[in-house]
C-alpha cells in the first residue's frame, strides 16, 4: 500500500481528523510505503536504508529490503542503532562490539541469497529516530519493521516508526511483524 503524507508534526498528526498515515501504517497487514513531497534519493550510487534491531519485525523488514535492493540494483545500508545503557557492569566498548557482531551475523545469511547487493552495515550510537532519519536523507527509501503494541494508532505503529513518519525525508516503508 502506498500513501502520501504532508509530514505533519506528531501533535498535528494525532489531532488531525483527516490524517490517515499513522492509523493505516499501524494497522495494515501488508507493507506500507509513505511518500512525502519531493521525496527522492539523491545519492549516487543509490541505496536503501534498513533498520535492524533483532526483532521479528526487523527480520521481515530486512527480507523486504534485500529483495527491493536486488530488484532496484542498489546498495543496502543495514543500520543498528545502539543506545548506551545508563548503568551497566560491562564496558561500553564490549557492548558496542557485541552489537556490531550481532548486525554482522544478522546480514550474513542474506549475503549468500543476494550476492549482487552491495552491503554497508553500520552500528551507530544515538536515538534511533534521529540516527535513521539522518542515514536516510539521501536514500531511495528506508525500510523499518513495525512492532508497536496496543493503545492508540501511534502506539501500534511503534515509537520509531511514528517518529520516522514525521522526520524522514525519504519514503518510509513499514513492514509488519509476521
What this model shows, in words?
The chain is α/β, with parallel strands linked by helices. The protein is 42% helix and 21% strand. It has a 7-stranded mixed β-sheet with strand order 1-2-7-6-3-4-5, sandwiched between helices. Helix 3 (56-72) links the parallel strand 3 (47-51) and strand 4 (75-82). Helix 5 (128-135) packs across helix 7 (159-167). The two termini are 17 Å apart.
Which whole number gives the mean pLDDT? 82
- Percent in strands: 15-25%
Q: Separation of termini?
A: 17 Å
Structural class: alpha/beta
Low-confidence segments? none
User: H/E series, N to C?
Assistant: EHHEEHEHEHEHHE
The beta-strand count equals 7
Instruction: Give me the oligomer status.
Output: single chain
**Count, helices:** 7
User: Which descriptor suits the 3D outline?
Assistant: globular
Layout of secondary structure:
Blueprint: E1 2-5, H1 10-15, H2 21-27, E2 32-36, E3 47-51, H3 56-72, E4 75-82, H4 92-113, E5 122-125, H5 128-135, E6 141-146, H6 153-157, H7 159-167, E7 172-176
Parallel strand pairs: 1-2, 3-4, 3-6, 4-5, 6-7
Antiparallel strand pairs: 2-7
Helix pairs in contact: 5-7
